Amino acid sequence: ITMKLVKTGAKVTVGPAPPPPDNILALKPDRVFLSNGTADPAASGAYAVPVIKGLLERDIPLFGICLGHQMLALAAGAKTAKMFQGHRGANHPVQRVGGNWGDSEGLVEITSMNHGFAVDNATLPDTLEETHVSLFDGSNCGIAVKGKKAFGVQYHPEASPGPQDSFYLFEKFVGMLK
């Protein structure tokens, strides 16, 4: 992940998960990346969600991958649920379905995934827009926070070796300030 961000021109500072929002803001970041991890998002949310809410309130651009995507969804008011069968592997088709993709809306990406929880689409508040959907089971694979520079994807766009259809997300994130 760090390598992909650096390749797009970002200066990267890595910190523990998660420090209080004021500690993050003391670094004067122009954006914050919410990384992946292994955990029940509802349990991890006890410490991460307040931090992410604080960053959203301060209009800091955010990009979440996998668990970071789920944490962003929880902070914005959605819920997550344990999947009957998790997504694991490097060949999961995902379709862009919303979120200002221009003429690439509808495009299918082959992605790498490794998760057993998903954002529950039935709980998406009006402030969230679904941006990507699994073509295997219709589960949520991406969100954008309306009116904010904040988005997340359930899959691993940084996966390498593996599908490289989603490297554009790092450029989108870094380009939010241009």
Which stretches of 5+ consecutive residues score pLDDT under 50?
Answer: none
**What percentage of the residues does DSSP assign to strands (E)?**
25-35%
Terminus-to-terminus distance: 21 Å
Largest sheet features: 7 strands, mixed
| Structural class by helix and strand composition | alpha/beta
Helix percent band:
25-40%
Principal-axes geometry comes out as: globular
Q: Write down the domain tally.
A: 1
Strand order of the largest sheet: 1-2-7-6-5-3-4
Mean pLDDT: 89
CATH first level: Alpha Beta
Number of strands: 7
- Assigned CATH architecture: 3-Layer(aba) Sandwich
How would you characterize the overall build of this protein?
By secondary structure, the protein is of the alpha/beta class. The chain has one domain (2-177): Rossmann fold (3-Layer(aba) Sandwich), CATH 3.40.50.880. Helix content is 25%, strand content 30%. It is built from five helices and seven strands; from the N terminus they run ααβαβαβββββα. It has helices at 2-7, 21-26, 41-57, 67-75, 168-174, and strands at 32-34, 62-65, 80-96, 108-119, 128-134, 140-145, 150-153. Strands 1-2-7-6-5-3-4 form a seven-stranded mixed beta sheet, with helices on one face. A hairpin with a 4-residue loop joins strand 6 and strand 7. The longest helix is centred in the first third of the chain and has 17 residues, at 41-57. It starts with a helix and ends with a helix. The mean pLDDT is 89.
